[in-house]
Task: structure prediction
Amino acid sequence: MEKEFLLINLSLNNFKYPAYLFYIFKTEFLIFVHNNKSGMLLKLKKSKKFSYIEEGEGTPIVLLHGLMGELSNFGSLTDFFSKRGYKVFAPELPIYSYPLLNTNVSSIARFVARFLKEIVKEPAILVGNSLGGHLGLVVTHKHPELVKALCLTGSSGLYEKSFGETFPKRGNYDYVLKKTQEVFYDPAVATKEIVDDVFETVNDRKKAIKTLYIARSAIKHNMKKDLQDIHTPVCLIWGKQDGVTPPEVAIEFNEGLPDSTLYWIDKCGHAPMMEHPELFNELLENWLQEKQIAAAR
Result:
């Protein structure tokens, strides 16, 4: 099989990473990318339909990022679980690549379902943050046969606060900095790289419009009446200081879902897997063991 080796700079969801090795097959691209944050080597697989990370072997876990999230948001979780008997997948969601009319929760949830059927090919544990959690809920409700368990963290689906009525403020870097910092309990988590990426998104007219479309779709696609029908085990891991999906959202999820467990992380905002990765991984792993869903090691 012929292989072509190139040294390139890869833009992965608008984050820049040095790519060390790039070789081409007939229908699939396999790109080795160095993740600057965790120091681990991530493999981004690309086919005609999907771009995704795949690490480890064993019970499948599928990670679903948020509206302005990145695959790198789950770097610690990927590293942790891929070494403990799990095969970790993280697809790039087509938030900015779909036509405007398909930029909605239902369409992207169908994309996730296709990913599970065509790539994962067995029931998986879904882990979703923010919009990713909402997508996980929709897929679990519509296709319970595809989902072994669901973990929600800072999930939309019931209620969430947006950037505000004036979003996006084009060209106002200080505003974007302030709003990005508000996502986290510790403002320092909002690194310049993260803020720059959000700033680029809100100042790209097409991306800004699609961001508003998907945000409005998430509000309209309320899951409250559907929760009682979701009998899949659900782990809720929530930041006590989450200002985007406040604690009352987690409580309402916990009350509405037939088989759920709620864990709180103190001094934590909207992205627990980024703000307290070690504790997040410990809580999820212990819950999987309690539910007898954990991978055999």
User: Anything to note?
Assistant: The domain at 51-290 is CATH 3.40.50.1820 (Rossmann fold). The radius of gyration is 18 Å.
